[in-house]
Amino acid sequence: xxxxFFDYSIGEIVKKTQNxxxxxxxxxxxxxxxxxxxxxxxxAWVVYGNxxxxxxxxxxxxxxxxxxxxxxxxxxxxxxxxxxxxxxxTQMGSPLWKNFTPGNDARAVFNLKRRGAVILxxxxxxxxxxxxxxxxxxxxxxxxxxxxxxxxxxxxxxxGMVPMAIGTQSAGSIIRPASFCGVYxxxxxxxxxxxxxxxxxxxxxxxxxxxxxxxxxxxxxxxxLRVWGENYPISxxxxxxxxxxxxxxxxxxxxxxxxxxxxxxxxxxxQEALEKFMQKLTAKNDIEIKEAALPEAMRQAHAAxxxxxxxxxxxxxxxxxxxxxxxxKIMNELIQKxxxxxxxxxxxxxxxxxxxxxxxxxxxxxxxxxxxxSTAGEAPLREVTExxxxxxxxxxxxxxxxxxxxxxxxxxxxxxxxxxxxxxxxYLLFEFLDYLQAQGLIPAKCTPPWG
Length: 451
Description:
- By secondary structure, the chain is α/β, with parallel strands linked by helices.
- It is 38% helix and 14% strand.
- The chain has a domain at 4-240: Amidase signature (AS) enzymes.
- It has an eleven-stranded mixed beta sheet with strand order 1-3-2-4-6-5-10-11-9-7-8, sandwiched between helices.
- The radius of gyration is 21 Å and the shape is globular.
């Protein structure tokens, strides 16, 4: 096992390659070594490149990067197999799209290349990034689920095959696999990472995010992927507002402890783990903890999400419906549910989503961040449906969130803590995470399953 990506952060590897302490081919060799050793057992990859492909990629870097800062210089990246890539097929977890080659890069993939990244290959996704699990296995226990549709990217990161990978979240598809596989996972504010060239499932929910081994790399990856400039006036104004992105000096962090209306789904060990962590925070003089009561309308979050999600699936996958030889039973069932939802019901759900986004934006007048469980607890068995959790609620309301790989059960299975901030306050969220790490309250990096 090559431990390079656990030993050094992305920033440290970039510096070492620029200082000639590491060669680019040594970095790629570390990734390929771990893939060849571990992927036959855990199945994180649909396809990955070889030394010949990577040599061609490195030759094109100067042309692609230009004068842009190389935040990810020579860093190998895994890409969920619903993003268009010019170097690999895009098959979306479905036999209907087997060997499809789009011939272009999704905007997010292009942005990674502009920052110097090397696209190592495509990670396995659930069918059409929905619910039907593919072959990827949980690195802690192969009988347990690795999470939802971005599981290939989470597992590739957890096993040190890559130091980072990108995925998507329309419900909990970044936070859940990050929680179940014990890695950092970030779903930024809705809309901050462009979705051009990515499979669409829902217009108001689909969000691009990423997984990482090291906490300090989250900001670097975010800066490599997000939109910049005045062409994005709403987000650009918020992102560059120092009053929003930095905690005012002289006052403590205002932290909300959110149990949510689905807290009862969490087993006692998970509830106690988060409550003990909140007690640690309470002991800090520069943090004020408040039990946060969410707006009452948030109790409708899961129902509204289900309506929006299923109706959108029935629209975008109309041609796939009832192709039972190629489309899973669960996918057809969701499409059928969506077909039964009327236009007015769908519009009401969208209106409720807009209302909840506004209410949560107002809610953050009293808090810098809020803390909840990432998932109800450890990963369930593969054949067991995951219990409802808070990840979906923050997706619906467009909040930036990070899974912190903080907890483990007595048997060693990981599960995470989820921290969320106001929409577009992504940098404030990163600042709070840095504070927690400096205080020794959260890990600087995730630990490998064997460590």
